[in-house]
Automatic annotation (TrEMBL):
InterPro entries: Glyas_Bleomycin-R_OHBP_Dase, Glyas_Fos-R_dOase_dom, VOC_core. Keywords: Dioxygenase, Oxidoreductase. PROSITE patterns: VOC. One of its GO terms (molecular function) is dioxygenase activity. It comes from Pseudoroseicyclus aestuarii. This is Glyoxalase/bleomycin resistance protein/dioxygenase superfamily protein. Signal peptide: none annotated. Gene3D superfamilies: 2,3-Dihydroxybiphenyl 1,2-Dioxygenase, domain 1.
Length: 180
């Protein structure tokens, strides 16, 4: 179950207290575990999550430095680390994603620092080709990408939106898209 605000103006205190965040549409997003205080129940409506046949919960990527990769995703997209800890084969993992959505990237580093990326992901079976991230303001995000020292490329403007690509330190290609 999930709470939504029936009176968004009443949510300013929740935002200030860090109990809610602004969603991509400007509405308030409350964590799934949120419990409305009895004194404030008049401001909230309890709704059931819409059932979907299926949705992507996460993808798991192997990187050299999970903290650095998570920091990049936080800086560029406003994502947050929702969990971190030890992982399979003596490795370490961070789960980073957009708050309130339930979707995230698991950023993993194995115990051996010498893990290698494939020479060409498009010719290696099972390799990741790229990650696509939708943003509200493509130009502002591209400015952030450049300010961090990355080189955007492969700009395209065709239906249904505009996009560009860049590669980060682990040679993971990230496609940034805007449908605005």
């Amino acid at each position: 179950m999930q709470f939504i605000m029936t009176n968004p103006e009443a949510g300013s205190g929740l935002l200030a207290d860090g109990l809610a965040e602004r969603g991509p549409d400007g509405g308030l997003v409350l964590p799934p575990a949120f419990t409305a205080p009895p004194a404030r129940r008049g401001f909230f409506t309890l709704i059931k999550r819409r059932r979907r046949m299926a949705h992507l919960e996460h993808a798991n990527l192997t990187v050299a430095d999970p903290e650095a990769t998570a920091s990049l995703l936080e800086t560029l997209f406003g994502w947050r680390v929702r969990w971190s800890g030890t992982a399979i084969h003596g490795g370490r993992s961070l789960h980073v994603g957009e708050p309130g959505t339930g979707s995230y990237l698991a950023i993993y580093r194995g115990a051996e620092a010498a893990q290698q990326a494939p020479v060409d992901s498009y010719t290696t079976r099972g390799a990741l080709n790229h990650i696509g991230v939708v943003v509200a303001d493509l130009d502002a995000t591209e400015d952030k990408v450049r300010a961090l020292g990355y080189t955007p490329g492969s700009h395209a403007d065709y239906e249904p939106g505009r996009r560009f690509y860049f590669r980060e330190e682990n040679d993971i290609e990230i496609e940034v898209i805007s449908y605005a």
